[in-house]
Amino acid sequence: MAKTTDVRPVVKLKSTAGTGYTYVTRKNRRNDPDRLVLRKFDPRVRRHVDFREER
């Protein structure tokens, strides 16, 4: 059985709009060794904003 916890850890993405809204996702450490930044929808401000990985 493959170890998915080493290659694909669970990360929290926190909104940069300051609302405190978070998403939870997995990322591939080999392809994305740096902190992940995704543009997703924040329902508290009702628009798309950058979500940054927090550790």
UniProtKB/TrEMBL annotation:
GO terms for cellular component: cytosolic large ribosomal subunit. InterPro entries: Ribosomal_bL33, Ribosomal_bL33_CS, Ribosomal_bL33_sf, Ribosomal_zn-bd. The keyword tRNA-binding does not apply. GO terms for molecular function: structural constituent of ribosome. PANTHER family: 54S RIBOSOMAL PROTEIN L39, MITOCHONDRIAL, LARGE RIBOSOMAL SUBUNIT PROTEIN BL33M. Belongs to the bacterial ribosomal protein bL33 family. HAMAP family: Ribosomal_bL33. This is Large ribosomal subunit protein bL33. It comes from Kineococcus xinjiangensis. The gene is rpmG.
